[in-house]
Amino acid sequence: MNMAHWAVGLIVAVISAVAWRRNRYPGGWQPAFGRSYAPERRELARARRRLARRAVGAWAARVSLQLQLGAAEGERRSRIDTARRSLDEALRPGTGQVVSQLGALVLREHALSIGGDVHLPLTGLTVQIHVGIRSHHLTAVEGNGQVHHVPLDRDEHEENAVYAFAALIANTVLHDAAFRATRDTRVARARQRLADAEADTGREEAVQAELDQLIEEQRLDPERVAALARLKAACRRWETRTGRLPTR
């Protein structure tokens, strides 16, 4: 079975090679394989190789610049994405990083989480501590007047730790107020960085101009023009001899 497969493969390869050669040197069996046509085949092959070498060199030069252009475009897109994220953070800072935690209470840069999905904005927030027999009681009043009560078990939280946490909340509220006071300035700067990133097309334009110039130079390249003329002449001579015009 393996020998049969090998034989079939060999036959297919031979047929493909013959078909390719007859396509490259059209006109029948003699033009493709006969000795009398060998000079014309050599001439046609040389002309094709000369043009192919010029084409490959030109292609490599274009690809190099195209890769540079793609890299410049990617770098600008990256700068734009970074600027957009900065603007989004300036417009919507969210709750911020965790500052400290006490039981279910999680103090963040811009909010106090009191359990579950309840996040109290620090803007205008005040807290009071009431000491009970079994529990400490933290009362948080939002800027809009809404009141929240959070009990803290005395066995789990020392009184000093509770008061220290309340003081930290008060200080973080002040920091949040200072942060929000600069919001407009930060947003304006972020918008400007985004506008600058979007407008910064200098590198792309320079590479594109270089690529356009290269393409024009290649189009007018005297060696390419001469190689193409030689190939056309060889094709015409082949057509005169065989009656068939070969592909370039």
How far apart the termini lie comes to 41 Å
For the sheet with most strands, the description reads: 4 strands, antiparallel
The number of distinct structural domains comes to: 2
The best one-word shape is elongated
Assembly type: single chain
Average pLDDT: 89
| Low-pLDDT residue spans | none
Fraction of residues in H or I helices: 55-70%
| Whole-angstrom Rg | 39 Å
How many strand units? 7
Number of helices: 7
Order of SSEs, N→C? HHHEEEEEEEHHHH
Biggest sheet, strands in spatial order?
A: 1-2-3-4
Strand content: 5-15%
Classification by helices and strands: alpha+beta
Tell me briefly what this model is:
This protein has helices spanning 2-24, 29-33, 38-91, 159-181, 183-199, 202-219, 222-242; strands at 98-102, 105-108, 111-113, 119-121, 126-131, 135-141, 147-153.
Can you tell me about this structure?
The chain folds into two domains: 105 residues; 101 residues, PH-domain like (Roll), CATH 2.30.29. The mean pLDDT is 89. It is an alpha+beta fold and 248 residues long. Helix 3 packs antiparallel against helix 6. The chain is elongated and about 115 Å long. The protein starts with a helix and ends in a 6-residue tail after the last helix. It is 65% helix and 14% strand.
Chart the SSEs and their pairings.
Blueprint: H1 2-24, H2 29-33, H3 38-91, E1 98-102, E2 105-108, E3 111-113, E4 119-121, E5 126-131, E6 135-141, E7 147-153, H4 159-181, H5 183-199, H6 202-219, H7 222-242
Antiparallel strand pairs: 1-2, 2-3, 3-4, 5-6, 6-7
Helix pairs in contact: 3-5, 3-6, 3-7
